[in-house]
Amino acid sequence: MIIAIDGPAASGKGTLARRLAAHFGLRHLDTGLTYRAVAAALLAQGLPLGDEAIAVEIARRLDLSHMDRALLSAHETGEAASRIAVLPALREELVRLQRAFAKAPPGAVLDGRDIGTVVCPDAGVKLYVTAAPEARAKRRTAEMLSQGKEADFASVLEDLKRRDERDQSRTVAPLRQAADAHLLDTTEMDIETAFRAAVDIVTAARAS
Ligand SMILES: Nc1ncnc2c1ncn2[C@@H]1O[C@H](COP(=O)(O)OP(=O)(O)O)[C@@H](O)[C@H]1O
Ligand SMILES: Nc1ccn([C@@H]2O[C@H](COP(=O)(O)OP(=O)(O)O)[C@@H](O)[C@H]2O)c(=O)n1
What we know:
Largest sheet: 5 strands, parallel
Shape: globular
Radius of gyration: 16 Å
Bound molecules: adenosine-5'-diphosphate, cytidine-5'-diphosphate
Strand content: 5-15%
Number of strands: 5
CATH superfamily: P-loop containing nucleotide triphosphate hydrolases
Strand order of the largest sheet: 2-3-1-4-5
Low-confidence stretches: none
Helix content: 55-70%
CATH class: Alpha Beta
Number of helices: 10
Distance between the termini: 13 Å
CATH topology: Rossmann fold
């Protein structure tokens, strides 16, 4: 079975995806990391973010089993990832890797922006996880502070809104809720409540 999870930045989709994968015995791929890994490589080598051919070349060499969220979590990496995520040939290359991961047994949970709409349109269950921008900025700020990084709520909020706008308005695979996705608004939910709600949705979908 494939579970597709999409949603805006810091909505909690990664946390849910990880826990659902463990609960249902599936593999997990955070597809945001694939965009972050390419962006981090470009930044590290001082290469331009707009050069599609170079980005595709880096994507071809990606090893999905060696992507470390901690190493790729920097705020600037997320910002650069959303800038290169508009490049069609790069998306094509990454989607190819993501689909291959999704299809291998026993199934997988993938989270990102276009999983239910583009990467796995036939997924058994689709969730669209969201929360109010202020709630998401509060979570991301707390996360950064807990990692010993500097974080200012107002600028985190501004950055998240700008990234959401870019992700929703790009021409190729924009962030949007698939017609058959279940909406999970976690603004008023803690992690445990959101997880329980997601398990109920998946369990009901598997039974039908
Ligand atoms: N429902 C929730 N309530 C409070 N904090 C949450 C909730 N879901 C996730 N978080 C926290 O918010 C931060 C961002 O969550 P994450 O799963 O990484 O989001 P995303 O993958 O959508 O960017 C993490 O620190 C996570 O522990
Ligand atoms: N399936 C995906 C996943 C991420 N992305 C892009 O990659 C960026 C970083 O994604 P992420 O999931 O790591 O970001 P957070 O939500 O964790 O902050 C997003 O802002 C998107 O622009 C995408 O275009 N498609």
